[in-house]
Design goal:
Elements lengths: L2 H23 L10 H8 L21 H15 L18 H19 L11 H5 L12
Helix pairs in contact: 2-3
Length: about 140
């Protein structure tokens, strides 16, 4: 094989790979939060008791530390925040921070949407990630 054929073969391969890579970069990532299911499960739980945790006013069916941590991790993923965004880390049960109080309002809103508007067997459920997409303050469509 001569040097010219090898050169053009290599050049074409590089161009094709560059096109494939650039097309993948322009796609919206198919990001599925790992813990979102835990949040939805607890928000829609028919078990209204809690045997673990303190001051859980709107979360239902929390019976272990692992369960509570999975739900909290789901909130963290959906909003792209850490625990101290909503919680006073010296007293996690405290209601001193406004984002924690707002979270309760939002949980009630999600529960209302899922129970009253998306109640069919083929209906997908709303999660925090539906709007927040990893941001504490969701962007409006016009801002995206």
């Amino acid at each position: 094989m001569n040097k010219t054929a090898v050169f053009y073969g290599t050049l074409i391969t590089i161009i094709v790979l560059a096109l494939i890579i650039s097309s993948d970069l322009n796609k919206t990532p198919d990001y599925k939060p790992k813990f979102a299911g835990f949040v939805t499960e607890q928000i829609l739980s028919k078990d209204t008791t809690n045997t673990y945790g303190q001051n859980l006013q709107v979360l239902h069916g929390i019976h272990s530390k692992e369960q509570l941590l999975n739900v909290m991790q789901g909130f963290s993923e959906a909003l792209g925040v850490k625990c101290d965004f909503c919680h006073n880390t010296a007293d996690f049960a405290s209601d001193s921070k406004a984002p924690k109080r707002m979270a309760r309002i939002m949980i009630r809103m999600v529960r209302n949407i899922d129970e009253n508007y998306l109640n069919g067997p083929q209906m997908k459920k709303v999660t925090c990630f539906t709007c927040h997409r990893g941001q504490a303050i969701p962007k409006l469509v016009a801002e995206r």
